[in-house]
Design brief:
By secondary structure, the protein is α/β, with parallel strands linked by helices. The protein contains 23 helices and 16 strands. It has a seven-stranded mixed sheet, sandwiched between helices. The chain has a five-stranded parallel sheet with strand order 2-3-1-4-5, with helices on both faces.
């Protein structure tokens, strides 16, 4: 059971400045703001009400008599004054943060939170109100135009919270979870040691495809926390595998039945072989025979294989229906469930057929990890290490000190590692959703080697994805050293951390069923989806905590690295 009271205590303890709510008219800044202030025991201010009180006339009259520029000037002055009141909750007007001076004051002197809602929801909530900007023209068109114009200003907020039709009470609770996640991610080491959140929420910000990630214990038992209201009462198709069917999925299905119109389950075999054309077709035919409709919902309950296949099915059946990720392995929780990459394997290469298709939400229930075998924990841990190596040396240092505790299932360490990994991936996906700038490609550190190793192993469970990534990261670190970036001590540091915890680090560790040559692995790498006209692309480390894409690497250099790891 998620305790909001605990969340309130954490927010009050760590936050010592105002909360400013920004967002479009109709998102409920005033209603939610009052509830938030009441829960925190803080004073609530509505900037529009304060303006009306100070000048003695309505907002509509100010707009009609003095014009919008005069109103924005009053708003700027009023918000600056309110920010001097210490901890409080301030609801600002929809356009306030679009004024640079106002935006700067809000960002520097408060925790700014953007409440975001869809235009249809805004139209519904503003109907019949006295909104000066909606008095002329079609409300939906005006709201869409304003949102498009203001989105970049709202995106300056420290926290992005999605309202998908929640009640004010539910939205207030979600905001508290998101504020706690922000405070947790920005807390000092000492502060993080003193409290372990039972649940957090963050947003993957992708314009109108944004969605929340929930992290906590017991979340599957509380669908009202993470299941959007508009998805209630739908025909639901759960894809799962037989490793999790009995211990997780059957109970989850019973929890959903009172909320949904129907809940059907298809059980799949675990392992990469399931990400095939045959299984993909079988899933589609099952849903079609079961009466799938455009408003149906797919929920993926399982590891990365189930999530990838379910997401691709959701992206393609009836040209796209909603889906939710419920990852139950450590690897899928910190990697494949976030970011919208879906797909299946071809006979010769991994993830060659797929689509970018974002889920409606990601639900990471830490309780699902408690029965995982050690091998699965280690597999997921490799992906966690990757985040430290490519973007945050401090996180890698923390893993060097706390990795063993995390792998033993300690809640505090598991929460820290998963939250940090998801937060980093959400930021990267926000900036480069479709790998167009090269930033998201950095998440593939070690993966060019790893995917070739997985193909050679035959996708039959001989080699788990995270095990392949562990070996691939060591090989990529050696490549980085050969190219003149890393020093040997850095390579040793990476190798020693992974091997010291029991992860594979050499190709010779892999129990291939038949001999594999370096030339065969290189041939598979040339089929990698990241390869281009200039050959295979590798992600290399310029230093621990900083990665880059490297093209034009000598085949001879790669072959030497592979052969050394085989001997």
């Amino acid at each position: 059971m998620i305790e909001i009271e605990h969340c309130l205590e954490d927010v009050k303890k760590l936050l010592k400045k105002p909360i400013v709510l920004v967002g479009m008219m109709g998102v409920g800044k005033t209603t939610v703001g009052r509830q938030l202030a009441a829960k925190l025991g803080w004073t609530f201010y509505d900037s529009d009400d304060e303006i009306v009180r100070s000048v003695g006339k309505s907002i509509s009259d100010i707009f009609s008599e003095d014009g919008e520029p005069a109103f924005r000037d009053l708003e700027r002055t009023t918000i600056k004054h309110l920010l001097a009141n210490g901890p409080c909750v301030i609801s600002s007007g929809g356009g306030g943060i679009t004024i640079p001076e106002t935006a700067q004051a809000i960002k520097e002197r408060s925790l700014c939170l953007w409440i975001d809602a869809s235009v249809p929801l805004l139209v519904e909530r503003t109907a019949g109100g006295d909104r000066p900007l909606l008095k002329h023209g079609d409300p939906e068109e005006v709201l869409q135009m304003l949102l498009d114009k203001r989105r970049s200003s709202y995106a300056q907020a420290h926290v992005h919270a999605l309202d998908d039709g929640l009640t004010p009470e539910e939205m207030t609770n979600r905001i508290l979870l998101q504020i706690r996640e922000y405070l947790y991610s920005h807390a000092t080491e000492k502060e993080k040691e003193e409290f372990v959140p039972d649940a957090l929420c963050m947003t993957v910000s992708l314009s109108d495809r944004s969605y929340p990630i929930f992290i906590g214990s017991g979340l599957l038992k509380e669908p009202e926390l993470w299941l959007p209201h508009e998805l209630h009462g739908r025909d639901t198709f759960i894809l799962t595998d037989y490793n999790v069917r009995e211990r997780i999925t059957d109970q989850f299905q019973e929890i959903l039945k009172p909320i949904m119109k129907s809940v059907s389950v298809m059980e799949l075999a675990p392992g990469e072989q399931t990400k095939s054309f045959e299984r993909y077709q079988a899933v589609l035919e099952w849903m079609i025979e079961s009466g799938v409709k455009r408003d149906s919902l797919i929920i993926a309950v399982g590891g990365g294989v189930v999530g990838d296949l379910a997401g691709f099915a959701a992206a393609t059946i009836l040209r796209g229906i909603d889906f939710i990720q419920v990852p139950t392995t450590l690897l899928s929780q910190v990697d494949s469930s976030v970011g919208g990459k879906t797909g299946i394997n071809s006979k010769s290469a991994k993830n060659m057929i797929g689509a970018f298709y974002q889920p409606r939400s990601v639900v990471i229930d830490l309780d699902t990890l408690m029965t995982l075998p050690k091998r699965e924990w280690l597999s997921g841990y490799a992906e966690i290490v990757k985040y430290g190596l490519i973007a945050d040396e401090g996180f890698f240092e923390w893993l060097e000190e706390h990795g063993l505790l995390m792998l033993s299932g300690e809640t505090a360490e598991a929460m820290r590692a998963i939250e940090t990994s998801c937060h980093m991936k959400a930021e990267i996906v926000h900036k480069d959703e479709r790998e167009e700038s090269g930033l998201r490609a950095l998440l593939n550190f070690g993966h060019t080697f790893a995917h070739a190793l997985e193909a050679a192993a035959g996708y039959d469970g001989t080699l788990l994805h995270g095990e392949a990534v562990s070996v691939g990261m060591v090989l990529a670190a050696r490549l980085s050293q050969r190219l003149g970036y890393l020093v040997q001590d850095d390579v040793n540091r990476i190798y020693n951390h992974l091997s010291g915890l029991g992860l594979m680090t050499e190709i010779r560790n892999i129990p291939f069923k038949k001999p594999v040559t370096a030339d065969e692995l290189i041939e598979t790498m040339h089929k990698d989806k990241k390869a281009g006209v200039d050959g295979i692309k590798f992600i290399v480390l310029r230093r621990i905590g900083s990665a880059a894409v490297e093209a034009g690497v000598s085949t001879e250099t790669v072959k030497n690295i592979l052969e050394e790891s085989m001997r």
